[in-house]
Amino acid sequence: MTIRKLLSAGTIIAFGMLAGRVLGFLREMLLATYFGAGSDANIAISLLLIPDFITALLIGGAVSSVLIPAFAERDEERSLALFWQSLLLFVVIFIVLAVGLSLFLQYDFIAIALYSLPLTAATGIFTAYLQHKNKFIVPAFTTVIFNSVILGALWFLPADLLTLAVAVIIASFARLMAGYMAFFRADGRYINIFSAKPEIDRKLLVAYGQSATSNMLGILILYTPFMLAALFSLGDFALFNYAFKLIIFPSVLLQTVIQMVVLPWFVGNLKLSSNSNKTYNYSIWIGLVTSFVVSLVVTLLSGFIADICFGHGKMTQQDVSVIGSLLAIGIWATPFMVLQSIYQQIFYAHKQTRAVLISNIALALAVAPLCFFGHIISGNEGMLAGFVIAQIIPVIMLAIKKQRELADGV
Questions:
Q1: Is the pTM of this model over 0.70?
Q2: Could you give the C-alpha distances from 71 to 78, 83, 379, in angstroms and in order?
Q3: Which of 90, 199, 357, 383 counts the most CB atoms within 10 A of its CB?
Q4: pLDDT (tens digit, 9 = 90+) per residue, 37-91?
Q5: What do you get for the CA distance between the two ends of the chain, in Å?
């Protein structure tokens, strides 16, 4: 992939993510309008979040990180066999998971929404194949498709919990169909997977296990400040929540672009050993500069951004000021989170999932005590400072390991 195509793909993904985020905010506004803030609202939010949270833990970026290099090292026939075998395996697993979880749930509406799990898992497999083929439009707009269906259901149908639960399944099916159609436009086709040689071996399963564990740790690490904020300062938790949503938005946007575009780029450059180191250095520098500029601009405009996003309704000027102050501190996690993501894709491209797992374990062990002591010293501001410091640790670990490998000619 050329630099021009890389930037073009990044722009498409960024636009798709931004559109998905905007529709997500509109979705939350409609939920508040129709369900208020009582028990029905809690159920409504849960039946939207629980299926996506489960698939984020078990699928997330783990499937793409493992399958994209595996697709690249196989010829087209074997890649298609791996695709269909993976699709069958994950759909069966998530059907069993959905049925099992639904039996233990107290609320029928959440149980209904859980049956979107196999559809979402299948979408993850299609997304990985499309990324391998450098087809980014549909993967970039899956959130737009999902939220558009939910918004349409809330707007045009009776706004009750049953409607919302069924809409989650329909929305999940709609984004799966988008991936399905894009798959065939990307020269995908059916093959008889039962007559094909099994492509899912022990090595691939181990790589997925390590990548999935890293992905789970990343999600849990991201929400450590939420848990501590709820534990220490219940009165300020809402303000912390609003600020943290603003803090992670740039890093999530940049990390998704990195995951969806840069990993296939790295994999393609592995065959060109003379270009690989140049590719790695270029991606690291452009990621560092971009994320640093974003953090600096957000810091300078933190008060304005907080006012635009939350300076209305029942929010006081003091509330907005607190959000702006937290944003100005927490946004500096962005450069380190972006660098960490780039280094992770470098190691994933070489199928070195163990190094990423170790760095995430180190981060998981560091983030809670740093946030804890930061909160003791300076409240929520100190906790966010601890969160920022913790993000430096995996970057240093992965950078040192990569430099040692380059020195050894690996």
A1: no
A2: 8, 8, 48
A3: 383
A4: 446 666 776 787 777 777 776 776 667 777 888 888 888 888 888 889 888 988 9
A5: 23
